Task: structure prediction
Amino acid sequence: MLTDFGKVFIFFLIGGLFVAAGLIAAWVIRPKRWYPSKLSTYECGEIPVGDAIVKFNIRFYVIALIFLIFDVEVVFLFPWAVVFKNLGMFAFIEMLVFLSILFVGYAYVWVKGDLEWDKPAPQLPSINSKQLKISTPQTTPD
Amino acid sequence: MNLVDIIFYFFALITLVSAAITVYSRNIIYSAFSLLFTFFGVAGIYVLLNADFIAVAQILIYVGGILMLLVFGVMLTHKVINVEIKTGILNVVPGSIITAIIGGTLCGVFVVTDWFIVEGVPPIKSTTTEIGTMFMTKYLLPFEIASVVLLVALIGAAYIARRDKSKNQSA
Amino acid sequence: MNFTLTDIPLNYYLGLSATLFSIGIVGVLTRRNAIIVFICIEMMLNSVNLTLVAFSAFLGNPTGQILVFFVMAVAAAEAAVGLAIIIAMFRNKMTVNIDEINIMKW
Result:
C-alpha cells in the first residue's frame, strides 16, 4: 500500500518540480526591466480599480456550506459502497435512511431559496413616446 | 536511517513548519494557505500509519471542504475600504504560559506512560472494507446520528448566514 | 521494501501530535482574529485525529479510525456553523477581532 501511495507522492513531487522549474527558468531568462504600468494588474487594458482581494457576496458562503456538508456525506458513502454487496438489503435501507435525513436539509435550503441566485430584475429599455428618448436601465453588476 | 524514517521526518517537518507559519503569519490569507500544507502533511503521516482511507478522507474533507470554507470566511470578513487582512496578537504572556503547561504535560504523559502495544501486529489490510463493515454493523447508530448532526449544521448555518432579505438590499 | 510499523516508535507520532496541538493552543490563545482562532481549532482537531490513528495502527484495531470519521464529520459541521456565526458577527459589528466583541463581557 505504501508503494501505491509512493507513486502518488512521486507524482506530486514531479508536479511541483515542473512548476518550480518553469518559474525559476522564467526568472533566470526574462529581462528585468520594470516600470509601473508593466507591473500593474492586467484588466483588459483598463486602469485597474480597487484591490484584487475583494469582499465576496454572502451567497457564495451558503453554496460553499451546502457543498461541504454533502462532501462529508460522499466520504461516508465510500466505505458503504465497498461492503454493500456483502451486507445486501439491510445496508441499502440504512444508507437510504442516511440519505433521506440529509435530503431534508437539501429540501430546506431549496425551499428557503438559498440555491436561487436572486439577480436584479431585468429592466427592459423603454421608449418614451413623448420625448422619443431611449432610456437605458442603470444596473449595477453583481 | 532508512527510507521510512526519511518519509516520516519529511512529513513531520512539513506539518510543523506550516502549522507554525499558520499561527505566526500576520496575513490571514497566508495562514489559510499554509494550513493546506499542514493538512497534507498529516495525510502523509496517515498513509505511513496504514490508514489509507483516512488519508484520502482527510484530503477530501479538510482540504476540499473545510479549508475552502475558511478561505471563504476570510474573503467575507474583511473591510473593503481599509483592507485589514493583517491581524495582531494579544495575551502573549498568559497564552504562552498555558501553552507551555499543556504542551509539557502532553509530552510528559506521552513519554512516561508505558503504552500497551501489540507486538508484531499485522498491518490492517484494506481499511475501507473494515471501516465499511463496522459502520454497517457495530457503529450503525452513530453513523445515522452523524447524518442528523450534518443536517442540523446545514440548516443552522444556512439560517445564520442567510442575509436578511427585508433589510439591507445593497451588495 | 518490507515495511513494518515498528520502524518508527509510537512515541514519535505522539510527540508530533502533541507539538501540533501546542501550536494550535498558541494560536487560539494569542491571535486576535476570530478566523485564525478557528483555523487553529481545526489544527488541534487534526492532531487529535493523528493520535487516534496512531493508536489504532499500533493496536491493530480499526475502531480508532471510525472515531476519526466522526471527528471529521463534527469538524465539518463545526466549521460550517462557526464561520456562519463569525460572518453574522462581522455583519453586525464590522469586526472579527475577538477583543472588540465584548457585548456580553461584564
